[in-house]
Design a protein that fits this description.
The chain is an alpha+beta fold. The protein is built from two helices and eight strands, in the order αββββββββα. Helices cover 21% and strands 41% of the residues.
Length: 138
């Protein structure tokens, strides 16, 4: 009985995390991908601010390994002082809403995170602007 309660509690937490509290940064438009970030999973991991993003494409794209995808969930690290960002984790999905089993997952250990400036006008630049201008509780 206790095992069932624990399993139920874990399922509730996982379901809530999967739904997230997504705030849209950019809508999908033509060839430009849409992006949202999860305000519930934005945190300070010194010296970086990290968040989870959901990227949605209007047409399938293909990774260098041949895997096709329509959406991705990514853990992004941001350095507001240097206005740089980098992707630490990516899960690519065949579905348009980043649901179901990931078609491919790529994860980097923290010591390999590479932060770079975002291209002007990109979703990354918009994400930096929003995250670095929002008052933080820490």
């Amino acid at each position: 009985m206790l095992e069932q309660r624990i399993l139920f509690a874990v399922l509730i937490v996982c379901t809530a995390a999967a739904r997230g509290e997504w705030k849209v940064i950019a809508e999908t438009s033509g060839a430009a991908p849409g992006m949202a970030y999860d305000t519930a999973r934005t945190s300070y991991e010194p010296p970086y601010l990290t968040t989870w993003t959901r990227v949605e494409l209007s047409a399938a794209a293909t990774l260098s390994n041949g895997v096709e995808y329509l959406s991705a969930l990514q853990k992004v690290a941001v350095d507001c002082d240097s206005q740089t960002w980098g992707v630490a984790y990516s899960a690519f999905f065949a579905s348009a809403d980043a649901s179901g089993a990931a078609a491919y997952v790529h994860s980097l250990p923290r010591e390999q995170w590479e932060l770079r400036p975002a291209r002007a006008g990109s979703n990354g630049a918009d994400l930096l602007r929003v995250l670095c201008s929002t008052p933080k509780p820490w």
